[in-house]
Design goal:
The complex is a heterodimer of chains A (about 750) and B (about 575). Chain A is mainly α and about 750 residues long. Chain A has helices spanning about 5-30, 35-60, 125-150, 155-175, 180-195, 205-235, 255-260, 270-285, 295-300, 305-315, 320-325, 325-330, 335-355, 360-380, 385-415, 435-445, 455-470, 470-475, 500-510, 525-550, 570-595, 595-600, 610-615, 625-645, 660-665, 670-720, 725-745; strands at about 75-90, 115-125, 245, 250. Chain A contains 27 helices and four strands. In chain A, strands 1-2 form a two-stranded antiparallel sheet. Chain A starts with 5 loop residues before the first helix and ends with a helix. The longest helix of chain B has about 30 residues, at about 170-200. The chains are: A mainly alpha (about 750), B mainly alpha (about 575).
Chain lengths: ~750, ~575
């Protein structure tokens, strides 16, 4: 593989799963029960390539430690496959606009019309390499698991075709270097998700859930479309990267090095905020954040492996990726950034509350996913380097342990004959020990118990929120630095801080004109968010262990659907659980102690913008925060143990003391009902009105017009008598009339 | 260019037509000795030989026109220029396909002929058909009223024979008699118009008549003009099946065989278009470029375009509304062919209007090749449309001839199987996509092309027609009663008619694809008709993918007949003044 260039390898990552998908589609019937072979082979090869790329990129970035540690330079590689569309002279940048300013002045050809080109370009940088590796590796494990889980399903080839297609689309999404191409694959992963949620389309709930997911996602896609339009209007390009125009000038991409190095390159103000909020809307749709989170719990109607890969580990993190990729844009708009945090923390708390009273194991996990994604958004919204890397860190660990939990839940479901209601089974640890042990590992990681992986990533998120809420408390770690360093890229190893980071941030994310004071971006906001996140940590531990206790402890009970053969899952399903349990347990500790990931990600161009690097702080372990987080988790686990450890899960539950609140949470805070009342019903009424108007007014009009020629035809038909003499007479009379009219006109 | 012509030179110029006539003689004589079914082989061979001879003829290259557009040889009463060459190749090409359709034709014959089903392709039919082609080709090359009329009669008389030869039942007899009498009336009217033209020019030669018109202003010319234009237009209208001479079309098409309908719906239309374009060319200011139109010439073009525009609007509307209520397939296609005559007349009106201002499209003539569709002019649009229309129409009739009969509704056990029935109504095509998918697909493509659905050739044709109409007096404001307003209105009527026409075309497609039937269709027509259908399909596909070639050849032909003298004037226009308003990207 060494002989292949990185560009070729990068193309191979999406290409191999695509080939697998096409082969499965073509040969599916032929392969029958071996239909998984092309898909798994494609994904496995892609995983190998992705890991190679990850290691190669990591070597390029260099080590964080040792005597050779030097300032991190942005690392990126672009390979353009082909020009998808090109319109000459599509755009004339206005004088002095953000589109015209940086870079284009190289040749002094400012004001020249620019072409609208959509290159299908793939990029490789640390962020992309990390996500590619996660997508393909977890995809591979889940695909292997699916061989056991989907066994005997009539749609076996279809499942693997769509699954492989999803891996392709998701790889393209994170590797694309153009907002329009991102949009295309944003839709593509949505389509794959739709196909997999509605995989058992004969089930009305599945069909309904697929439709719901699709429609709710459309709202987010709408945001991405508007954001793309605005970006084009503002920057005159949709590329992430800089491109060299034929006449030798550099066209700066939106997230290219030229623009990032320039202090005024990114547009802030009203337009910038609008772009960022639209991007946030898009991210909310795909990543199931409030108010667009309603589709994810219903998406659990799909096959569990699809839930594990798409609705827990990868696709739902597309929103995180989008915001992280657009970090420089968000840095210019502090209020939009704060909005990201607020949305995230609120979602985390609300979803955590709802999860506490769910009785469907997969729904508990679904709400947990929403909650954890909220954590990531909260972390991104802090707008610090630590916040961005912590979000990606949590994304990575979460991908491992949430995939593990979902596969474990699938294993339970497989064994229980399709029953997933936790009240109907119990004490399963004696029937399925491997599932129980690995599920426990995943649960510990999710609950944030040291030293499992979730603890470290969650701790970093809490730390970054805390640093924004109490800037002075963290300032003591750093020596004060002059504010003039703002435009210099700083190595993370020698971070600096200063007395008032909030004001410092405002000075960095300057718009050229005086920036209006940030409304949301205040320490007070982040204090509230920090406490919300801490409470969420406790809730997380509680609902996780409530599920663990209800499912695996207490007297053995098996629903009748399972028959008499409730058993541990076959090795092809158990092995993926064990494989995923390892990183769920130790990845967090390793990545935290070595700081490999944080250092690696710093070389991402988006994170190497001066505005971002200026917020770098030294790596530190905050014992006080760790104790707070662990305490919250411990309280949650203890309450869960009191309520559920060793009890029959079908008895009266502890949560009943919540009274009306329980009903409120059990009904998902009535958000679905609210949407139905406020949006769905009025729209249906409007649609009915429109249909009536269409049927009676428009159709009536159209039919009336259509009847006119037919009526005329009836008249003309009368003339067509079939009598030869009449024809001749009519013809001659017509000609004579013509002659007379002509003569008359000539005279007149 | 015209040295003293000898009779031999003139004869050499019409070698292809001579080949066709010789082929006809061989067919007629050979029919007496060889088997009666080999006739179509003779026809194919003769047409192929004529094509070869025409291609080998010097100065006949379609694009060989020089900058002045006059790559022409005039000798005696024969003129070979890009226009006549285009007509000749179109005629021979269509003739090749039509010979195949004729060979595979199928029709019920009278009992006296012995067989219930008479198949086409006898030597008499082949010879007659060859004579028809020769006449049509002569119409294209004629530079003289006498040869023009003789050529037209050489088209008409074999047509009567063809009609009478084939279908000998009552319907067939009625159809051939009707066509015969009405054609005689039209020929008489046309001849009367020609006489008046002779009166204007004092000669039967076109250039003499044109000179007479340009020099005119005298009372005689002005007095003869209405009769000349009205009567000549009537004669052409009969060939085009345009109002007011359109009545015969539905009855005759219904009463004849598919192969004859294919001939009737295309070849006479070619003749009509050629006659009208030659007449339009009469009034174009002479090669001297004096540009100043004499009163008679001005009145001639003015009356000509007004009459053509009115007839176009009326014809297309009448044809389409008649077609809407038809259920008989051949009647429906006859009405559709009337409507298409209206579309063709639109282009003629544009050409006439442009001739009166001395430019091709009313817009700057030099823009013709710079952009693709703009500035092509009415003559070009007409010629292009004619070719696309003919291909699709012949294709449909070829498919009908190929399909032949359908089985009647019949269940086993209810007695003996009844005889097969001819495909006559739209309902007979129900469910064709299931029983004969290739034929159904081909018919659907042809119908969509006729309806003008992009990107099929019919769409390009309608687009150029509408564009050329909109380009008349391009820079003038649209005021009530102005010429520009008239042509904008004509373009709108054309588009509206295309929408109406889509209704009945789509009805047939819906029958083929969305209805089911228990009655099978038997493809018992000749294989030759099937080949003709596929050939049309391939040609339609080629024009769909690359319409540019047909555009350029028809542009060369159209320029030769209608544009030539203004090139010098157009060159004087500085390029900066060009306004690329209507360039289509």
């Amino acid at each position: 593989m060494q002989s292949l260039s990185p560009a070729t390898l990068l193309v191979l990552v999406p290409l191999l799963p695509l080939a697998g998908a096409v082969l499965t589609l073509l040969l599916g019937r032929l392969l029958g029960s071996r239909a998984h072979l092309p898909a798994i082979a494609g994904i496995a090869a892609a995983a190998a390539v992705a890991v190679t790329l990850l290691l190669g990129t990591s070597n390029q970035v260099g080590s964080a430690h040792g005597p050779h540690a030097e300032p991190v330079r942005p690392v990126e590689m672009i390979t353009t496959l082909w020009q998808w569309a090109s319109v000459q002279d599509a755009y004339v940048p206005p004088e002095g606009s953000a589109a015209a300013l940086p870079g284009t002045a190289v040749s002094g050809a400012g004001g020249a019309a620019r072409a609208f080109t959509i290159p299908v370009a793939l990029r490789l940088d640390p962020l992309t390499a990390t996500l590619l590796a996660i997508i393909t590796c977890i995809g591979l494990v889940v695909a292997v698991y699916s061989v056991g889980y989907m066994h005997h399903d009539p749609g076996y080839p279809r499942f693997f075709a769509v699954f492989s297609l999803f891996v392709f689309s998701m790889s393209m999404l994170v590797a694309a270097s153009n907002f329009l191409v991102v949009y295309v694959f944003w839709e593509a992963v949505g389509a794959c998700s739709y196909l997999l949620i509605g995989f058992w389309f004969t089930k009305p709930e599945a069909a309904r859930a697929a439709k719901k997911a699709f429609l709710v996602n459309r709202v987010g896609d709408f945001g991405l479309a508007i954001a793309t339009f605005l970006l084009w209007m503002t920057y005159g390009t949709l590329d992430f990267h800089d491109t060299l125009s034929p006449d030798g000038t550099i066209l700066p991409g939106i997230l290219g090095q030229t623009r990032l190095a320039d202090a005024g390159g990114i547009v802030g103000g009203a337009v910038g905020t609008a772009i960022c909020l639209c991007l946030l809307l898009a991210a909310c749709g795909k990543s199931a954040q409030m108010p667009l989170h309603v589709w994810l719990p219903d998406a659990m109607e799909g096959p569990t492996p699809a839930s594990a890969l798409i609705h827990a580990a990868t696709m739902v993190t597309a929103g995180i990726y989008l915001v992280a990729r657009s970090a420089p844009l968000f840095m210019a708009c502090p209020d939009a950034l704060a909005a990201v945090s607020i949305v995230g923390a609120t979602t985390a708390l609300v979803a955590g509350l709802i999860a506490t009273v769910q009785n469907d194991l997969k729904r508990v996990l679904a709400y947990s996913t929403i909650s954890q994604l909220g954590y990531m958004f909260a972390s991104l919204g802090t707008g610090t380097l630590l916040g961005f890397t912590a979000a990606i860190f949590h994304l990575v660990t979460h991908a491992f342990f949430k995939a593990l939990l979902f596969l474990g839940a699938g294993s339970v479901m497989h064994s229980m004959g399709g029953v997933i209601d936790m009240r109907r089974f119990g004490g399963l640890r004696r029937i399925m020990p491997i599932t129980a042990a690995t599920f426990l590992v995943g649960g510990l990681a999710l609950a944030g118990v040291a030293p499992f992986s979730g603890f470290f990533s969650k701790d970093e998120i809490l730390a970054t929120l805390h640093a924004k809420g109490w800037p002075n408390a963290h300032g003591e770690h750093h020596d004060a630095a002059p504010a003039s360093h703002a435009s210099l890229p700083l190595p993370p190893g020698e971070g600096r801080g200063e007395g008032a980071p909030a004001t410092r941030l405002a000075s960095l994310t300057r718009s050229p004109a005086a920036a209006p004071p940030a409304v949301l971006d205040t320490p007070e906001t982040f204090r509230v968010l920090f406490w919300m996140s801490l409470v969420t940590a406790g809730l997380t531990a509680f609902y996780t262990f409530r599920a663990v206790f209800m499912t695996f402890t207490g007297p053995i009970r098996v629903p009748e659907e399972a028959g008499h053969h409730a058993h541990e899952s076959p090795p092809v399903m158990a092995l993926p659980l064990i494989i995923l349990a390892v990183p769920s347990a130790i990845a967090g500790w390793w990545l935290f102690s070595s700081q490999w990931l944080a250092h690696f990600l710093t070389a991402t161009p988006s994170f190497s913008a001066p505005a971002v690097t200026a917020t770098a702080v030294p790596h530190a372990f905050h014992m006080d925060l760790a104790i707070q987080g662990t305490l919250a988790a411990a309280i949650g686990i203890v309450i869960a143990a009191i309520g559920h450890l060793g009890r029959r899960s079908d008895g009266p539950q502890m949560e009943r003391f919540l009274g009306p609140l329980q009903t409120f949470f059990a009904n998902r805070c009535y958000i679905d009902q609210l949407y139905a009342g406020l949006i769905v019903r009025p729209l249906e009424g409007l649609a009915l009105l429109a249909a009536l108007f269409d049927r009676f007014v428009i159709d009536g009009l159209v039919n009336g017009v259509a009847r006119l020629p037919a009526a005329l035809g009836g008249v003309v038909r009368r003339l067509q008598t079939g009598l030869l003499q009449r024809y001749a007479l009519a013809g001659v009379m017509g000609v004579l009339a013509i002659v007379f009219v002509l003569a008359w006109r000539l005279r007149g | 260019m015209t040295s003293m012509p000898t009779a031999l030179e003139t004869f050499l110029l019409v070698r292809p037509e001579i080949v066709l006539v010789a082929g006809a003689i061989v067919a007629f004589l050979g029919g007496a000795f060889a088997g009666v079914r080999r006739g179509w082989l003779v026809a194919l061979a003769a047409i192929a030989a004529a094509l070869f001879v025409a291609g080998a003829q010097p100065a006949s290259g379609l694009l060989a026109a020089d900058a002045a557009g006059r790559g022409s040889i005039v000798s005696g009463s024969v003129a070979i220029d890009p226009f006549s060459t285009y007509v000749r190749f179109v005629v021979l090409g269509l003739g090749l396909i039509l010979a195949l359709v004729q060979a595979g034709d199928i029709f019920p014959a009278a009992v006296s002929r012995g067989a219930a089903v008479w198949r086409g392709g006898t030597c008499e039919e082949a010879g007659t058909f060859l004579l028809l082609l020769a006449g049509l080709s002569l119409v294209g090359v004629s530079d003289d009223l006498v040869l023009l009329f003789a050529g037209l009669e050489l088209v008409s008389i074999p047509t009567y024979v063809l009609l009478a030869l084939k279908r000998t039942d009552a319907h067939g007899q009625e159809a051939s008699l009707k066509y015969f009498f009405l054609s005689l009336v039209a020929s008489a009217l046309f001849l009367y118009g020609l006489v008046c033209l002779y009166g204007i020019g004092g000669s039967t030669r076109f250039d003499a008549i044109a000179a007479g018109l340009r020099a005119g202003g005298n009372g005689v010319a002005m007095a003869l003009l209405p009769v000349a234009i009205g009567m000549a237009m009537a004669g052409a209208a009969f060939r085009l099946a345009a109002v007011p001479m359109h009545f015969y079309a539905p009855d005759v098409y219904e009463g004849t065989s598919p192969g004859n309908a294919a001939v009737l719906s295309t070849l006479p239309k070619v003749a009509g278009v050629v006659v009208l374009l030659r007449l339009v060319g009469l009034a174009i200011p002479g090669p001297l470029g004096d540009g100043t139109a004499a009163p008679a010439a001005a009145a001639y073009t003015e009356l000509f375009w007004q009459l053509a525009a009115v007839l176009a609007a009326v014809t297309m509307t009448v044809g389409n509304v008649m077609a809407l209520v038809q259920t008989n397939l051949r009647r429906l296609l006859a009405c559709s062919s009337i409507a298409h005559a209206g579309y063709l007349l639109t282009g003629i009106a544009v050409a006439a209007a442009a001739a009166s201002v001395g430019t091709a499209g009313g817009r700057d003539a030099v823009a013709a090749d710079a952009s693709w569709l703009a500035g092509l002019g009415g003559a070009t649009a007409t010629l292009f449309y004619l070719a696309t229309y003919a291909l699709a129409t012949i294709g449909i009739f070829a498919a009908l001839a190929y399909l032949g009969h359908r089985w009647p509704e019949w269940t086993s056990g209810s007695g003996p199987r009844p005889p097969r029935q001819e495909i006559t109504s739209v309902e007979d095509l129900d469910g064709l996509s299931g029983t004969n998918p290739v034929a159904a697909f081909a018919i659907a493509v042809f119908l969509l092309s006729l309806a003008g659905i992009p990107p099929l050739p019919g769409f390009w044709g309608k687009l150029t027609l509408a564009t050329s109409a909109l380009e008349v007096d391009w820079n003038a404001p649209i005021t009530l009663g102005s010429r520009r307003a008239a042509f904008v209105a004509l373009a709108m009527i054309l588009v509206l008619n295309a929408a109406i026409a889509a209704a009945y075309y789509l009805r047939i497609i819906a029958a083929m694809y969305f209805r089911s039937t228990k009655r099978g269709v038997q493809a018992d027509g000749g294989l030759a008709a099937g080949i003709a259908m596929l050939a049309c399909l391939v040609l339609v596909g080629l024009v769909t993918l690359q319409p540019r070639g047909l555009f350029r050849t028809s542009a060369a032909a159209g320029d030769a007949v209608s544009r030539t003298p203004v090139v010098a004037a157009a060159d004087a226009v500085p390029p900066a003044s060009l306004t690329p308003v209507a360039t289509i990207r």
